[in-house]
Amino acid sequence: MNRAVVTSATVAALIAAAGGGFVAARSPWSVAGVTGMVAPAAAEGAPTPIYYQDPDGKPSYSLTPRKTPDGRDYRAVPASADVSFDNDAPEPTPTASVGGSKERRIKYYRNPMGLPDTSPKPKKDSMGMDYIPVYEGEDSDDGSVKLSPGKIQRTGVKSEPAARRVIRTIVCAPGTIALDERRISVIAMRSESFVLKVADVTTGSHVVKGQPLMEIYSPSVSSAAAEYLTTITSKTTSGNVQYGRGSRQRLMNLDVPDAAISAIEKSRTVPTSIEWSAPRDGIVLERNAIEGMRVQPGGVLFRIADHSVVWALIDVAERDLGAIAVGQPVTVKARSFPGREFTGKVDVIYPEINKETRTARVRVELKNADLILLHDMYVDAEINTGSPEAVLAIPESAVLDTGARQSVLIDKGQGRFEPREVKLDQRGNGYVEVRSGVADGEPVVVSANFLIDAESNLKAALKGFSETGAQP
User: Fold this and answer.
1) What is the mean pLDDT of residues 429-446?
2) CA quadruple 373, 376, 377, 380: dihedral positive or negative?
3) What's the rounded mean pLDDT across residues 188-216?
């Protein structure tokens, strides 16, 4: 119905209220399609309705009380709410009632697809979707976003308070087993010698300290043994006693085993050959001794390594090197023995970086009592770089990381969420340490925070768009 028709109906109703009785068909202001008498005036004191309008605001009017097809009464329109032709008169403020509560003022309507488009009145987009109303209080100036309880339930928003926790940060890196350089012994002659006999010992054999390895004849050793025997068998003065000590030292300088020197002292004879024994428990790494061979001074005949204690050489990535420190506990797992764990501590951080792999080498000392860790064996290490002290931490899922900055959403209660930038530190066990930005006990959103962040960004964009003049 256009404005002229509505005004005519209004005038007709006013005439009827003033003492009317005009038949609508005879009135010059009659409304097409309306027959019968105009309804009498309402009781004195109540606003007099001049016509009745569809309760949903549709362009459907009546001069008499009427019902919609679904049984609802038409809304009575008094003279004070009738259409005005005054251009300066303000339009009615759009309101909406939610869940039977008091009405809230609708500020504007935003595009349902998130486009920077707003409207002062209800409208549809190009696809026929209704614009979404934005109420007062939903676009606050503090940067927070407010969601309805229904939306919070549908999106699965969950919060968890920030609390002090012990974070166990693990650095995983591969490595290999190496022999302890301090536990390797070499058997070499210090004088020209001849190998008379070699024991049944080969490379890879396990020997114990004192086990015979070979028999050696050396002219220098025999001469020194004869000299020492002469000094201990003769009746000497105190000066000759000192000379006898010098003879024993000569044998020791030729690396004659203590057992062979003790045998000379007991037997009081000069042996034809000297029995050489293993200086420590370990594995024979090298066997060069052959019966009948001639050995020059410095010639290596045996190399023995004790591997009851070994090293794990771990290759740590350059990015993790700053978290590694001497003394940190390490757990080593051998790929050959699933389920077995060997524990140790970081002993040495080598002061160099491999330029091809960009890794640094870390040394860990491990006990190898059952001798199952072998030289050059592959292992995997877990270095615990976390601090034993409790720190303020939040779940990792609460962090919104853009690369340039990290932020979280603080649950302020009653469906309001505040984005806040934070400074983070170490991570572990699904938690991350917070240096600043969150206080102890403050609840942070740990689930569906990306949806809330998207809603916040959308409202911020719409607000900025409306501030440029698009908002009604």
Assistant:
1) 89
2) positive
3) 93
The CA distance from 276 to 297, in Å, is 15
Query: Residue 254 corresponds to which tokens in the numbers above?
Result: 């030729």
CA 60 to chain centre: 62
Query: What tokens does 385 get?
Result: 């770089």
Q: 271 pLDDT band (50/70/90 cuts)? A: confident
- Rounded distance between C-alpha atoms, residue 108 and residue 122, angstroms: 8
- Please report, for the chain, the start and end positions of each structural domain, with discontinuous segments joined by +: 106-135, 146-165+389-465, 191-297, 307-384
Phi, psi angle pair for 90, to nearest 5° = -70, 145
Helix 238-253 with 258-267: angle, nearest 10 deg: 140
User: Sign of torsion, CA 74 75 80 84?
Assistant: negative
What is the strand order of the sheet 274-277 is part of? 274-277, 212-217, 193-198, 294-295
Provide the residue type at 368 as one letter: N
Per-residue pLDDT, averaged over 449-472, amounts to: 56
Q: Are 77 and 54 in contact (CB under 8 A)?
A: no
Q: How many CB atoms lie within 10 A of CB 328?
A: 16
* Maximum alpha-carbon separation in the chain: 167
- The residue that leads in pLDDT, 190 or 234, is 190
**Residue linked to tokens 């300088």:** 253
Strand partners, 108: 134
Q: Crossing angle of helices 258-267/219-233, nearest 10°?
A: 50
8 Å CB contact between 362 and 324: yes
Under a CB-based contact definition with an 8 Å cutoff, are residues 157 and 448 in contact? Answer: yes
As a CATH number, domain 307-384 is: 2.40.30.170
Condensed to tens digits (0 to 9), the pLDDT of residues 78-87 reads 876 654 434 4
Residue 425: alpha-carbon gap to chain centroid = 10
Please report the DSSP string for 79-115 in residue order: GGGS----TTSPPPPPEEE-TTS-EEEEEEEE-TT--
Neighbouring-strand partners of residue 306: none
pTM for this entry: 0.56
- The rounded distance, in Å, linking the Cα atoms of 123 and 10 is 29
State the CATH class of domain 146-165+389-465. mainly beta
Sheet holding 49-53: strands in order across?
61-62, 49-53, 75-78
Distance separating alpha carbons of residues 36 and 25, to the nearest angstrom? 8
Do strands 443-447 and 158-161 pair parallel, antiparallel, or not at all (unpaired)? antiparallel
The identity of residue 236, as a single letter, is T
- Both tokens assigned to 89: 């008169």
At which residue do the structure tokens 């052959």 appear? 290
